[in-house]
Amino acid sequence: MPFRHxxxxxxxxxxxxxxxxxxxxxxxxxDRAEAEALEHAWxxxxxxxxTWGRAPERxxxxxxxxxxxxxxxxxxxxxxxALLPHFSGRTLQTLEAGDFSxxxxxxxxxxxxxxxxxxxxxxxxxxLRHANRKWDWQLPDVLAGRVxxxxxxxxxxxxxxELARLLAAAERQRRAPYLHPYLRLAVHTGMRSGxxxxxxxxxxxxxxxxxxxxxxNQKSRRQGSVPLNAQALAALRALRxxxxxxRWVFRDGRGRRIASIKKAWRAMTAAAxxxxxxxxxxxxxxxxxxxxxxVPLRTVAEVLRHRxxxxxxxxxxxxxxxxxxxxxxxEGTVVEVDFGWDQSGTHxxx
Length: 350
Prior knowledge:
mainly alpha; globular; 14 helices; 6 strands; 3-stranded antiparallel beta sheet
């Protein structure tokens, strides 16, 4: 029978798998009837495997429906949208290497860059491996060695002059009054767009000047916190009266969570005359400004919650002064030594 955890909107089920182990598994749905149907399907699968040793066929659509609601990040949903027209209805056990080569060729013909294709196929493989590891689907890893390298990626950040234009344009967006504080909060915390739009007031600690992030709230799936400076606190205070009382920091006039700012963002950037800037670029902006102000890369990594310092190293070139100071210090540490060579290049001792 489905049950719920206090911290999750989804129904969970408990059953014994084919190895006799007790499994507790999220159904990824808040609908009890759907959860009960999934519970019956999973129990039937266990019975079929135990009785006839037969693994059920799995479709691409089934994989996405099981993986995305619980484990998918914001970027994964864009990847799924691109993959769906090519793989919808396909049985996963029948996919071959040629299917993915055809997918790459089709995406390149559409002008999609290799880095984006790599993200899309990488999400596909992550879902396959998760299904095998967590749900015992026993699917072939047909994408092993076939995901192209993503490359360094683009780092686009806003100058202070660009941000001033964006803030001025945001103030004129009467239908999106949240845009102005959104810009300030994003730049002064470095938080991802999904983290901001999913932020709840209960996770804002005014006394400690922190925003708390649970594993489900951020990409790394770890607990963490984000420090708040005076600008970020002011942005949050500006958001308090918007939309009346409600759970979400970014909400509409009825208190409902704002799930996307794409339309308002396009209008704002067009009015400001700022091209090539996405909401995620505000995270790059926070990093760039900190590095340019002389903040050590290790500290920048902590603020942005990077798991790997190599991710933060993308911004190292924005602070060449550190390198200049490093080589300048060599001048005071190198000791000149007379090795005994004369001007002809001959050593006096032969």
